[in-house]
């Protein structure tokens, strides 16, 4: 029976059902404690469920029973990497490669780890080995692409980035061909939704470039919360709200071509010196700006918006999001600054600790009134600065040409922020990057922000004095 439970659990794991897989695999190891493969797969299931202590125990048990399991060493290395045990993770990957020097997953995972450690030449070599061993494996090619993108080597990077295997059946569903970079004169092109909301905000800038190349109509599929905003973006004729996986109704336009949004930089031959970065390229609704202005006008001092959390489903969210608003307390101590939370839903609830004390006493929560990104854009127009983790609101501020300071994690920093830069060529002149160092928490970064915020507040012109009434005649 143990082999049957093992097969059942492995199948469930492959289907993305780790909790059910763990139940079956626990049954397998209970019946046959020496079944190393069951321990290894149970460890992986527990790992995906966030049960770290149990996962570690089963990884170690699997490797003690069968130390020649290359895949188990590879998965164990990934587990250790997420725990920030980088030296041990590297040892695990290298043990996997000692067992099987032709293991593309081990080379690819090692490359990602070396990226984290900023050992860039070694990382690039590992990624290239993975691609050479598995040229048809998209994961390896995309990892190499991101390594090159972080270095600013966009020409080669975009070619590997196109290995993404997203929605290959989209053209068949909508009945139109995928754009290959050819002539666009007089043709209607539909930009497909891919990635998160920040990706769509970043890449919708290419709509103007498509128009410059002769496209007659440009549409964009997008997340529902983006539709009112992107309808006002430069070059976009139709913004169509759909779910993250597509499937919404496309307007009755004779579309000639389609293209995934993140493929536009490659097809437009984008280099660091040719990023289409005319800001702003999205625009706020004047009526919404006026409505939010009434809410903000009574706030004296430098108005600063805060975003300390991203989407919890994002793969690196544990690293990019802050533990809570209390981490930002030094910003609230800067004289002459008024803070505003731009979080919808649970973000504002975190503004109080269990004792009911506000983490940032001078922070005004605005989230309850934010219906979509068009509202957030209107609020940003009334603020002097946004301070945000790496999330869609930061891209929105950049696209609006509003000043924005971004907190970047050291662990798996996103490729679009490049390496060792305090600015962004995607949002020139409006964005400043604050980078976490290796092994650091956020305290140093927040202290630097507080220092710079103090300077910004002190440099702000004093408000005009109220008008004086007529002098008394003494009567």
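^ Assign residues to that structure.
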């Amino acid at each position: 029976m143990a082999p049957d439970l093992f097969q059942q659990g492995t199948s469930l794991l492959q289907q993305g059902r780790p909790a059910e897989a763990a139940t079956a695999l626990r049954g397998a190891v209970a019946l046959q404690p020496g079944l190393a493969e069951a321990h290894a797969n149970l460890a992986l299931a527990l790992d995906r469920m966030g049960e770290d202590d149990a996962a570690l125990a089963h990884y170690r048990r699997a490797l003690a029973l069968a130390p020649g399991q290359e895949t188990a060493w590879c998965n164990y290395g990934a587990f250790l990497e997420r725990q920030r045990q980088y030296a041990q993770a590297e040892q695990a990957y290298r043990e996997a490669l000692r067992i099987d020097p032709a293991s593309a997953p081990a080379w690819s995972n090692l490359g990602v780890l070396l990226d984290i450690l900023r050992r860039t030449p070694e990382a690039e070599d590992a990624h290239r080995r993975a691609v050479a061993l598995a040229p048809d494996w998209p994961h390896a090619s995309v990892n190499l692409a991101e390594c090159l993108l972080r270095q600013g080597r966009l020409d080669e990077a975009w070619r590997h980035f196109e290995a993404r295997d997203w929605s290959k059946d989209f053209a068949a569903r909508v009945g139109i061909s995928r754009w290959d970079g050819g002539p666009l004169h007089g043709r209607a092109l539909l930009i497909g939704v891919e990635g998160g909301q920040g990706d769509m905000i970043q890449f919708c800038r290419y709509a103007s470039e498509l128009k410059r190349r002769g496209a007659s109509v440009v549409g964009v599929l997008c997340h529902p919360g983006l539709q009112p905003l992107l309808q006002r973006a430069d070059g976009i004729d139709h913004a169509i709200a759909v779910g993250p996986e597509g499937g919404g109704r496309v307007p009755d336009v004779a579309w000639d071509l389609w293209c995934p949004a993140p493929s536009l930089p490659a097809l437009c031959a984008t280099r660091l010196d040719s990023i289409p970065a005319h800001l702003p390229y999205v625009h706020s609704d004047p009526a919404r700006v006026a409505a939010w202005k009434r809410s903000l006008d009574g706030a004296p001092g430098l108005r600063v918006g805060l975003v300390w959390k991203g989407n919890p489903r994002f793969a690196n969210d544990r690293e990019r999001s802050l533990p809570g608003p209390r981490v930002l307390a030094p910003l609230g101590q800067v004289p002459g600054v008024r803070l505003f939370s731009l979080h919808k839903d649970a973000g504002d609830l975190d503004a109080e600790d269990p004792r009911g004390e506000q983490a940032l006493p001078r922070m005004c929560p605005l989230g309850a009134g934010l219906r979509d990104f068009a509202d957030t854009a209107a609020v940003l127009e009334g603020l002097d600065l946004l301070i945000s983790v790496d999330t869609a609101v930061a891209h929105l501020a950049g696209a609006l040409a509003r000043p924005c300071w971004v907190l970047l994690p050291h662990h798996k920093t996103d490729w679009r922020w490049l390496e060792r830069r305090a600015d962004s060529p995607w949002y020139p002149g409006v964005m400043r990057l604050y980078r976490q160092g290796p092994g650091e928490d956020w305290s140093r970064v927040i202290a630097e922000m507080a220092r710079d915020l103090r300077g910004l507040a002190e440099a702000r012109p004093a408000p005009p004095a109220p008008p004086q009434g007529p002098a008394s005649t003494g009567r």
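The first helix runs from residue 2 to 14.
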